[in-house]
Batch of 4 targets.
Target 1
Amino acid sequence: MTIHDDERLGALNRREFLRQCACAAVGGSAFAATFGQLQLTSAAVLPPGDAFDDYRAMVCVFLFGGNDSANMFVPMDTAAYDTYAASRQNLAVARSSLQSVNATNVTESYGFHPSCSEMRSLFANGNLAVLANVGTLLQPTTRQEYLDRTANLPPQLFSHNDQTAFWQALRKTSGRKSGWSGRMADLLANRIPSTEQQFAMNMSLFGTNLLQTGGTSVPYNVSSRGVTSLRGMGGRNAREDRRKRAFDKLLDASRTSSDPFIREFGAVQRRARDSVERIGAALDALTPLNTTFPTSRLGEQLNMVSRLIQIRSTLNVRRQVFFVGMGGFDTHGAQLARQPDLYQDLSSSLNAFYAATVELGLQDNVVTFTNSDFGRTLTSNGDGSDHGWGGHHVIMGGSVDGGKLYGTFPTLEIKGPDDTRGGRLIPTTSADQYGATLARWFGVPDGDLNSIFPNLNNFTTRSLGFMG
């Protein structure tokens, strides 16, 4: 909430002031996630000796717009590369410029995009894995089933909004929407009793998102600069001090209100205020890491994630999921000019974050993984690619069984066995399988995975094996 001038504040009576604060708390996405329903946020505050007595964190890096990952990880064997080049035409990356790697579990050769040198090194050192051709699926789907229209498909394929939502929710939603990390938070909150003040298991550096929204939990929003607090009440001058005292008096008065909404709203705001102060103070007291991050938006988000992980003991949390985002991947035009900068940012930011986890001694406790709306078409539209379906993703961390290629690498052939039409590849691995493999490492029992990943039972393989 921003209060623009004292005159307007003075004109507000108690009821109107609380009403406007309530609107602020449930209105703006960042404010709502930070303050609204804080009493319902699910944190893993765990007693010593519990099955969750270690610390684990997952970091989702969402590549908004639809990453053309066919150029991020490319086959290098002559026949496979020639097929790739024939399909990609003017979008193909020159074979001689690829950053070659030898995956230890396959005989074929592959290469990262020339701007992904850091990712290549992480892969070669066994700290990063590639998951091939993963996407949104309700069940295994063949090309013939797609063409015959007999396949049960996710809603609105190739649509940014719908596919982003499905990646995060993994179900055709009706009624209250929730994401798989939110449902995971709900589950762990129900399994882990605690009488202590709880902090959110899910924390977002990229605004409110469906992935982290559960039935009884919402993500706690933090900016790259730190916690979000009520502006105009920072105690920087006498005017702000008066404003803060007035607000505190209203919150204290809410304790005895006959209106249950006002009582609960006041309780939420008091806990939110205390949480902001506690997190802010802990961040301010940190000794900076030696790791240098890129100054890009993604680099700054991951830098803040590393700082939030540093204060895990102060906040008494044992399980956390962080959400960060990066835009610009909707490369309908100028793709060859735009991809180098996108991949350089992604690669250098991931590398810096991994180095930070090593500096913290937590590289085995933190797993970072990518998501995106969809892959893109193999075919060129003249200057870029269009909305596709399956794509490749990377998973990074000391607990990752890295240096390997997981899933089934597709045939990069127009009208080939994996092509719907126009070079839109049918995923050979589902997003449910991807998420479930991460959730098992996080500590979710196998018997509970179906409640979080509703399509998982439709696939034979429940764990993809990339977590060591």
Note: DSSP finds 15 helices and 13 strands in the chain.
Target 2
Amino acid sequence: MSLFSFGNDNLFLGVDIGDSSLKMVELKKKNRKMLLSNYAFSENVSEVNFTKIEDVNYLAKAISKVRSDAGIKAKKVTASLPTFAVFSSIINLSNVDRKNIALAINEEARKVVPLPLEDMILDWKIIPDETGNIPTKGNMRVFLTGSPKKLVRKYIDVFKQAKLDLVSLETETFSLVRSLIGDDKSTVMIVEIGANSTDIFVVKESIPVLNRSLVVCASTVTKVLAEKLGMTYAQAEQFKFDLSVTLGGDDAEELPKLIAKTLEPIVTEIQYVLDFFHSHHEGEVEKIVLSGGGAMLLNLAEYFSKRLNKKVIIGDSWNRVSYPEELKPVLSEVGAKLAVAVGLAMREMES
């Protein structure tokens, strides 16, 4: 059931297609405010990997079921492209103007894109110069992304079969920047701890300038707990949740040794990215924003902050969204895992 009663024409739906989950957020724009209309998520609904499955019919039915069960009415959809499937790079152009920028970008793209350009859909964004302005000629830096045409066609077919209007596709990174950072031009690191991977991005002036991925993630912790404590996977998930609820007070900056040891590769990788950025770019990362379902594990933000000597916070994906005050406790619990879907729903509302 929708949180507010709206007509369908001005509703926008973000659909985050994860490895083993589907997450949806429905927003309504009223004047200059974004209002939460509805949300839904379904995790571990099957053993199928949604981001890699070629069965368009199966994925379309799964999307339709989650949407229908939640009572979501929006028809206009922005969906996520998996980070691992999208190529991105910052390229430098010399002595160009707006008339020939597309040609110049294509020429540079052939040097860096690993697949034939004929098989890719390219998109780009000119990076502001030192004064904060968008250059129109001369030397410029461009953030380039490339998506395989085969993947894009698949998603078009999926949403057509689900009887939804797919208005745009974008990578998870930009959705996270939109929902968690917004207009903040400071240099921020986003650490997205998902079910099957952890993605680390450094974002400078709203542009992801550096990214890394590793396989240690939320499910890694669950599997280790299940193995060491003799539990089923489901029992370990519940134990992890219960521990997150009860741990606090004097233990706010500590993690049980078993969990801390499991998460050590993430700490090491974050430190590596911080050091690399410091040595190759001007400025420092000002803060680290945690996102994804794994971000809610225990007192992870406090633990990371202590280990890395850096300000670490849980990202607030509802920061620019209005919703009934009584829902705040529930939305605070699910906000980290819905951050991509929130950013996707915002995309067309801000254009």
Note: Residues 1-7 have pLDDT under 50 and may be disordered.
Target 3
Amino acid sequence: MSTGTDSHLADVLVVGGGIAGISVAWELAAHADVVLAEAEGDLPVHSTARSAATYIPGHGSGPFRALIDASGPRYAALPELLGTPPLLTPRPVLHLAEDDTAARHLEATLREQRGEPGAPVELSPAEARRRAPVLRLAPVAAAWTAGACDVDTAALHDGYRRGLRARGGTLLRGARVDGLRRDGAGWSATTTAGHRVRAGVVVDAAGAWADTVAALAGVPGAGLRAYRRTIAACPVPDPSVLTVDGAVLPMIADAAERWYLKAEADTVLVSPADETPAEPGDARPDELDVALALDRVGRATTLGLRSVRTAWAGLRTFGPGRAPVVGARPEHPGFHFVAGQGGSGIESAPALAALAAAVVLGHPAPADVDLDPAVIRVT
């Protein structure tokens, strides 16, 4: 609710307009007046806009796997709710072990996830090479995640944005929060664009900047750590090799997380799966990481990559234990974190947003999300 040209009164102030902030704001707006403040003039800009755009069952720590599992049916329902095109396109993932180190990683993954919905299944080395003829050699071991998909992240974010407005929410762009303090039973915030917002509750969904926002409010940080991840788009000399049996080449990932590739039009996206500690900011690719990606993919495949069309980097922010961080500390009621999505922010967004909104509103956890909120509460 606006109370003037630059003043707003709301039930909830959400800080951050990436996928975490925009999705939880939409969920909250079904029950409350919401103002979302985003530092950038465009949306999305940072991690959400630079994602590999994948939905991979079995990816990440246990809490993320539960959220990804619950997000599948929600992804199927979102097009009708948000007026988007279909958001998921099937793209299986082939997990490769080219040496004993990767084989041990793959064995541990298969053992840990055995019996979980959508878990990867073991594949023979010969079958792995049949499904991905671009492999230079048959791997030592392999696995297959059949239910993985590409995500239309632009349509997803835009759908949540339009949905927020349809529910009466207010979106402030170019409005970095630069002041945040307790004001009676609620909070008063100011932004660099001159906005003043009074809200009963603050939701800190500022990604790599979430602990910085907490410091503005006098709230201890959540122990978040940001890491740079590099991706390069490389033209393929013979794009016909990117199709197998009439379908696009599966995403191929080293089981020890040393590289991955994903075909896109006449290019492949390649990454050395780097995790370089970084401060919050506009991440830039490192030439060495790009070279490592080309070298590792070149050793593993016959794609013959020789050049880079473009490269970029994004920040992946992890909470303690590589689980998301959701909720408020008892000694700081009304200030909630929704952060630490790591490399799973897109694929877990629908379920995480619903669970986080329930926590903020004091509602029961959604019945379809098999994750106790206590497991991911801020400590």
Note: The chain has a mean pLDDT of 94.
Target 4
Amino acid sequence: MTAKNMEDLVSLCKRRGFIFQSNDVYGGMKGLYDFGPMGVELKMNLKNSWWRSIVYERDDIEGLDSTILTSPTVLKYSGHEDTFSDPLVDCKQCKSRWRADQLDNNQCPSCSSNDLTEPRPFNLMFKTAIGPVDDGSSFAYLRPETAQQIFVNFKNIIDSTSRTPPFGIAQIGKSFRNEITPRNFIFRVREFEQMELEFFVKPGSDEDWHKYWVDQRLKWWSEQGVSSDKLKLLEVEKEELSHYSKATFDIMYEFPHGLEELEGVANRTDFDLGSHTKNQEDYEIKAKVTPNNSSTTKLAIQDLESKKWYIPFVIEPSAGVERGVLAILNEAYTQEEENNRTVLKLKSHLSPIKAAVIPLKRNNSDLVNLANKIKSELQSLGLGRVMIENSGNIGKNYRRHDEIGTPMCITIDFETLENQSVTVRDRDTMKQDRVDLSNISTYYSNYFKKN
């Protein structure tokens, strides 16, 4: 039985050190969350899994880590300054503010009043001053997406790597959006991370590549433990498409609060490279902004056969890390009434702790020293974090590691001192095996190869 509601997940996350309200000692800040000891490991494991799948396991994608501070000129020509906004309304009765497109029957969620102001655009980008004097003349935006810095680095990357389409540029990093109504735990927040790929293709091949990447992303989420029966593919209606998009498919997931977007896969055409390119009128592009004559760079590719220049189309799979963590926690959360336990049945590559080594008696130096030796041996294999759990209560230790999703617990008891064997307990089945110390590294490695 999985989580009944969001409260189950919120309670587990705080109790076991996954996620905390940011600035909690001062009452917290809405729409901001901190990832604790277990949460940062889960989050890092998810990002590493994405990077390995997108970059390491392919030969056509390069990586990038760009700045968060973004030039206003970049976001002017990308269209963000004019279009990156949500419709804002105020409730005249209780003075609360809401996104107009998320209200039911044009009714205030706080007081149920229909006495609302007319919607007006609210820009979602955070602005910050650059330099010692905040006089408004020198400023930057905190990037609202990681994509634009990929586009403005396009020529740098093709010049330094000699890439030609089809190829991609991948980036994981922070983005910021001044949400009017952040909500549903870590689903919609003001500071978040994106796992974003911009895949550059020849015009005319974009629709086939778009379908390819939708299929790849659905497969990847399944490999992370997300149930296919909780995923739904939604094609965004033309009138609801972003200003840059020819077509977008949203991968929707059944979160505890309802069906919402987990990842978007968009066909951005040549809009972005065209918008940032010098003398774009020289190329057959369809950018929807004023031609950019301030750019000094030609973001175009010369076809080797025809010798003609063209601006590549872009297919963009873009996923929020926090939304991914929330979906994976929801999938893994299991309440076993017959065993009277809560367990996170995470895929082993995502588990924050790969193994807990538990000396049966905390004050026995022989047991503790041997536990530390085994911990060091397993840690050196580089599969993830191995933890010493030295609280002395074996039952509570098992339950704690069930709740944080540790795949195996290795208990060092007095029999270990006699015959050099340990007890290995499996998280999901609770089956216990006796394993010789000489084989423990092989047993541990083989487990993660199989899982």
Note: Residues 37-56 form the longest helix (20 residues).
